[in-house]
Specification:
2 domains; alpha+beta; 7-stranded antiparallel β-sheet; binds 2-acetamido-2-deoxy-beta-D-glucopyranose; elongated; Immunoglobulin-like; transport; electron transport
Length: about 375
């Protein structure tokens, strides 16, 4: 089981990073511009593309980040300290109501309401800047002289709304707070700002996605379809129990971590995500305890227990999928993760549909035979009333 989990986790991370790397490598730019290296940032679905020139210590960069037309995006370098917007010189792209994009080059002297005075950079920008908006994303182009002629720089990026055409404060979500990283323009390697909270949020997300989003649906698929095959009895039952129990244990760990993260984040609460999480946990716990109250197969109440067990189980799966998307919207990891989850969901759905088509005729045949047996012997044991 541990191996299967590891495999599932690895598959999810691989899928996500493949999709993310693809995002960054497959990007194309206007005016025939090309860049030698690229980096998909860990937050806000942003990416940086650049070509470094060691001869003169400059880098041609393109920063791309999604935004709606009423938003702004920014990227810059902090020559003095990591993990901080104060002290950064940043390019900020926004557009007016007629769609004309302009770039502001400003030094950030404070976190609360910086003056945003144009042309106050603390390092040289030999060429540019220029910016454009297309396909729901801004791209900012510039050639920067890397401060201190060093290839290792602290970079910052951000996205936010405008208010009456003016740059307004960006949201304070975890991803907006964690959008800094140290980047080596020569090797391309990056180190996200050490942010243990973001790290724990990612673990919370991964645990819950694997538990509630993968293991529990697989367990339900096993119970619904495998038991139709006589040869799979009682193996399907044990597989079902193993999937649901390990899903529940992992899921409770992920849920507990979520509650802890929630209690630490004073000021910002994600109410719908939190409440859905609590509802899912309660329903799933009910499922576990209901096992103890399961009437015997021949008991006349078993049919009602089955109806209850199925409806609560399917509700947990649907609510979990909704809540995983809510969590992804809060965390805004690199866009590959959402894609990976959608691919997994579609795959599970596709498998269920195929099995539905395969098992229907078998189930009907079995039911007919059972009915015939019942008529002949006067003693039935319908498969649909199995565990
Ligand atoms: C930057 O450093 C490189 C050597 O690493 C040197 O060749 C280049 O002239 C320097 N550029 C500037 C602008 O100082
Ligand atoms: C820096 O050097 C590169 C490669 O030699 C050259 O193409 C580019 O124009 C130079 N940039 C500046 C600002 O001098
Ligand atoms: C900042 O100043 C430059 C000219 O120095 C101008 O081209 C640019 O549009 C200004 N940016 C904004 C947002 O006004």
């Amino acid at each position: 089981m541990a191996r299967l989990l590891l495999l599932l986790g690895a598959a999810m991370v691989l899928l996500a990073s493949a999709a993310t790397a693809q995002d960054c490598l497959s990007a194309t730019f206007s005016g025939g511009r090309t860049f030698g290296k690229c980096n998909s940032m860990p937050t806000l679905s942003a990416s940086l593309h650049w070509t470094y020139h060691p001869e003169n210590g400059t880098a041609d960069v393109a920063f791309r980040a999604p935004s709606d037309t009423s938003g702004w995006v920014g990227w810059g370098i902090n020559p003095t300290s990591g993990n901080s917007m104060v002290g950064s010189s940043v390019f900020i792209a926004s557009q007016d109501s007629s769609g004309v994009v302009s770039v502001l080059m400003t030094y950030l002297e404070t976190t609360s309401q910086p003056a945003l005075t144009n042309n106050t950079f603390k390092f040289n920008v030999p060429i540019g800047p220029a910016a454009e908006y297309s396909d729901g994303a801004y791209t900012i182009y510039a050639t920067v002289e890397l401060p201190g002629n060093s290839t290792q720089q602290y970079t910052v990026w951000q996205a936010g709304p405008t208010s009456n055409g003016a740059i307004a404060q960006h949201p304070l979500s975890p991803s907006n707070r964690a959008s800094t990283q140290s980047l080596d323009f020569l090797s391309g390697s990056s180190t996200a700002a050490s942010n243990s909270k973001l790290h724990r949020r990612n673990i919370h997300g991964l645990l819950n996605a694997i538990a509630w989003g993968i293991l529990i649906p697989i367990g339900a698929i096993i119970a619904r379809y495998l038991r139709v095959f006589e040869s799979a009895d009682p193996a399907w039952f044990y597989l079902h129990i193993v999937c649901q129990c390990s899903g529940y244990i992992l899921g409770v760990a992920g849920w507990g971590l979520g509650l802890k993260l929630g209690s630490e984040s004073a000021g910002i609460t994600y109410k719908p995500h939190r409440n859905l999480g609590i509802a899912i946990f309660s329903l799933a716990t009910l499922q576990v305890f209901a096992l103890l109250l399961r009437p015997d197969k021949k008991n006349k109440y078993r049919l009602y227990w089955n109806i209850y067990h199925h409806s609560v189980g399917y509700s947990v799966i649907v609510l979990s999928a909704i809540n995983i998307f809510k969590g992804l919207d809060i965390l805004q990891p690199a866009s590959g993760y959402k894609t990976a989850y959608i691919v997994i969901l579609a795959t599970l759905g596709g498998i269920a549909l195929c099995l539905e088509a395969i098992t229907w005729p078998i189930a009907i045949r079995k039911r007919r035979r059972n009915a015939a047996d019942k008529a002949a012997v006067g003693n039935g044991n319908g498969w649909q009333q199995g565990a």
